């Protein structure tokens, strides 16, 4: 079915004929993926379907050993494990947490019965992504359609949020490969601001601009306004609408409007920057 379905172990400088299969998923409804943990001690085999997932841990000290299952799959149950040495931090939607919470599990007994809470579930705040470092955990969450970056200190559980002045924008966590890094990297953009990539210094709580997407020389971001309004749908739900217009526009209903929308599968379309939209 042209799906990833098997994980093979290959030792460098050895013939491929000596590769060993360490995991196989025979059900054609399930896909698999592998990723390295930032700590460098394990690799994670993620098995995922349309509404559920499970994770198998490969210890890189003995990668030929049978991978360890953290929690078995079941309908509607999704989770993602992150390695922190003696424990795993896990982003999961179990235990009445449809918008996800963060739990901690001991390495030697990571079964769901041993999970303990770290970041509690908050209805309406979707934890979309989590990334783990030696001393802190960074969450990309969404609430009232607005993305948020929240930093949690592992030592005492204290948390702070990185503030943004824009009403509507897009955020993304960018790759960082060092487990003990004192900084993490993220990108920011709005319909009126081209993409900016920042390093965030945890010790001083400062963002450092590393790169900004080039724009045409005659583009003046200050001449535009990007804002968010909500419309009430027929089923009673509030639908967010991001608006971009010139600052000197007369809001009298006479201006032309280009509308674009998408809605399915819980996928949010963030209001990012596009040079193609510049008039």
Major β-sheet annotation: 4 strands, antiparallel
Structural class: mainly beta
Number of helices: 0
> Order of strands across the widest beta sheet?
3-4-5-6
Give your account of this protein's structure.
With 279 residues, the chain is mainly β. It has no helices and 20 strands. Strand 4 and strand 5 form a beta hairpin. The model has no long low-confidence stretch (mean pLDDT 93).
Please render the helix and strand layout as text.
Layout: E1 6-9, E2 20-24, E3 31-36, E4 42-48, E5 53-59, E6 68-69, E7 79-83, E8 87-92, E9 101-106, E10 116-119, E11 125-132, E12 136-143, E13 146-153, E14 159-162, E15 170-173, E16 183-190, E17 193-201, E18 206-212, E19 224-232, E20 238-246
Antiparallel strand pairs: 1-2, 3-4, 4-5, 5-6, 7-8, 8-9, 9-10, 11-12, 12-13, 13-14, 15-16, 16-17, 17-18, 19-20
